[in-house]
Amino acid sequence: MRSLYKGIIFLVIFVVCLITATSFSYAEPVSSVGIASYLEMNGDNIQDGDIVIATAQGYFVSEISYDPRMIGVITTKPAVELRALEEGNKGYPVVSRGTAFVKVSNVNGAIKKGDFITTSSVKGAGMKATKSGYVLGEALEEAAFPAGTNVTLIPMTLNLRFIQFGSNVPD
Predict the structure, then answer these.
(1) H/E stretch holding 160
(2) Which of the listed ranges 3-7, 82-86, 136-140, 166-170 does the model predict with the highest average pLDDT?
(3) Which residues of 74-84 are buried (b: 16+ CB within 10 A; e: fewer)?
(4) Exposed/middle/buried for 159, CB within 10 Å: 0-12, 13-18, 19+?
(5) DSSP string, 10-29
(6) How far apart are alpha carbons 104 and 102 in whole angstroms?
(7) Nearest 5 degrees, angle CA 76-CA 80-CA 85?
């Protein structure tokens, strides 16, 4: 009889936990798979997918081709976020490693899956890397640019590094 009561109590606790867990658990869609750090950005019109650079004056959206100061990408819905801002300060989530949607332009031609992406002269946007230099990572999809536009978002693997084109050194 005592074991029957223990079994019933266990069953009731299990059902309550199951109902509670399923009714309160949810997942929001994410725009990156990586850990985002919140950084205070300088400038206006900062958008999802913008490439970020670090300078002695702070963090800015990139606007120079092959900029070695790039540190990551703005992502409005990171999978994991770390916040260390004081109350009232405005920060943006920036991902440096992992997968994220990145703003790219067709400045250096069509972007295909596997192409290396670097910064471009288009504010916040990357482009296909065609010469040695620092890259943000690799395109996971071909970039399709709607008619009349030269900027779009594509998923990328983020792995900031220097790439030497035309060498026999494996990357």
Answers:
(1) strand 151-163
(2) 136-140
(3) bbeebbebeee
(4) middle
(5) HHHHHHHHHHHHHHH-----
(6) 6
(7) 70
